[in-house]
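Researcher: Watch the backbone:
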Amino acid sequence: MNAEALTAPPMPGDAAALIADMGAHARAAAKQLALTPTANKAAALHAAAAQIRAHASDILAANAQDMAAGRTGGLSGAMLDRLRLDEGRLAAIADAIDDVARLPDPAGAEIERVTRPNGLVLSRVRVPLGVVGIIYESRPNVTADAAALGLMSGNAVILRGGSEAVHSNRAIHAAFAAGLVEAGLPADAVQLVPTQDRAAVGAMLRAQGLIDIIIPRGGKGLVARVQDEARVPVLAHLDGINHLYIDGAADPAKAVELAINAKMRRTGVCGSVETILIDRAYPAPLGIIDALVAAGCEVRGDKGIAALSPHVEPASNGDWDSEYLDAIVSIGQVDGLTGALAHIDAHSSRHTDAIVTEDAATAERFLTGVDSAIVMHNASTQFADGGEFGLGAEIGIATGRLHARGPVALEGLTTYKWLVRGTGQVRP
């Protein structure tokens, strides 16, 4: 299969016309999906996963083009890691689509049912959002994850990926769309914007009545633009300025292992820890510093941390608000849980924050006191992932307070409506 196959038709004369055309087709597909049985949606996803496996060579060749362009264009190591596909990662993408197909279908699920004193029976049931626009950067797996989650929850999806992954996105989308067609569902259920013109992003943000919600997934610049310009509701995936607090009652071996994994397993993912806070009462801070340095991590520390090792660079004020997405970490000393909570409140992006401690009461105070989408105890922040949460995949980690929070998967792509069943009641 050619990687350009099954992409959208040639772009009309302007971005607004393009998005209007795609939106109209998506709206029609969403109406069809809303009536599609769960088994049919699952079959389509299995077919899409099979198509991705069957055309792995096309997808990897397309990714090689993007990787070469990224190196030439000076993409950072972290960005290249996000962009890179290999046989294992591509297999994981296909497996994730199959996993989503096996999950319970949220559309039509009854949330609650009550019978009023007058005999009216009220039920609240989940329904799809409708048409979901997703604007994302770097990571081609988002193309498949968003398509799978959108389809299974009964939503049509309009995807606009970043230019750095343009060939990878087109190849994955082509395979996915082939699976939908094979299973008898409309290819318009999952559309990929066929241009990298930034005007198309603006047109999506102004597409009231065509797109029901926009989900941005990328750097601060992208998310800020979406939030500033959108006339469509936004479900934001913000940066991950994540903290790991090492309490005075932490087990030293556990603290080292969690610090290394949380920072160094994959530095370019949004669940990577960026700041480590160490209680002044913790007895072995040098062990954490030395382990990170030995693992190839650059350590930037406050005065107390810098005094412990010649390998520590002084931290600037900006370090505490930086998402490095690289083998760099800032480390600061704090006065117990109170100091940790104050620092996190001032600098966290409300994505994921974790504590390492053997004191159960302190752990509970941390879990309750930190206002982030994901709060952890004695676990690596790298578990901040929809697949690890048993959600099959995710579109992003929502850090706001409205609609959905944390990994956004099937349930997060639904809203609800009330069904009222009566026997002729009239209101007095």
